[in-house]
Amino acid sequence: MTLLEVENLAARHGLLQAVRGVSFTVDQGEILAIVGANGAGKSTLLRTIAGAHPAAQGGVRFDGTDLAGVPAHKRVGLGIALVPEGRKLFGELTVEENLAVAGRRSRPGPWDLKAVLDAFPMLEPLRGHRASSLSGGQQQATSIARALMTNPRLLLIDEVSLGLAPVAVDAVYESVRTLKDAGATLLIVEQDLGRALSVADRVLCFLEGRIALSAPTGEVTREQVTAAYFGLD
Ligand code: ATP
């Protein structure tokens, strides 16, 4: 079943066209990885789907509903959660308080404080720690856990592994696999091509605001994705 339909979507920053009319779909239960060079438009795309940035053209349908004019907080209510680049936690609040704040916007579903702490065992001993005192990997785990607290049907994660130590990347990806096994649908932006290809069902490569390549990960080589990444034929 198609969960997300992106149709001819464009987004701008002033005069700059960051996303130039892209179309793709994401099926329920699938992991779609978006790769591409810095500035290719990946973050802008995710933010536009989440309603944090306006669309200049085209549209997004979620589970058959047209999201035109639906503000970001209402999209959370429909089941779309964004883990933004830079994580954006409340630094003065503890891990548990950050999770609880998100839980107040929760849809009905399996994810509550206990369930997310079970999924991210590394957070259990950090419950009472201020978010600002955490390492990068701990912050990323908290940020994903916080998004889960809303019981999303679609989780958008920007820059999954950027700036994390390898061991933290392993831990975060282990939880991504756990989420997939639990039936979650994920759209992830990942700088690390090897990781993207190993975890995702499908990969989209962005080049200057357009989709240069779209393929099931089992049907594409690393070399083909790299060529699309650099705009080589
Ligand atoms: P990165 O990996 O660097 O985040 P990206 O693929 O996610 O890259 P975007 O962040 O979406 O790309 O940026 C797309 C284009 O829009 C770039 O040219 C960028 O400089 C520009 N841009 C992004 N955010 C803003 C902003 N707030 N104001 C002006 N221009 C912006």
From TrEMBL:
Ranges of residues in domain ABC transporter: 4-233
Pfam families: ABC_tran
Entry's Gene Ontology molecular function annotations: ATP binding; ATP hydrolysis activity; branched-chain amino acid transmembrane transporter activity
Keyword vocabulary terms for this entry: Amino-acid transport, ATP-binding, Nucleotide-binding, Transport
SMART domains: AAA
InterPro entries tied to this protein: AAA+_ATPase (IPR003593), ABC_transporter-like_ATP-bd (IPR003439), BCAA_Transport_ATP-bd_LivF (IPR052156), P-loop_NTPase (IPR027417)
GO biological process: L-amino acid transport
Listed CDD domains: ABC_TM1139_LivF_branched
Superkingdom: Bacteria
Similarity comment text for this entry: Belongs to the ABC transporter superfamily.
Protein name per its UniProtKB record: ATP-binding cassette domain-containing protein
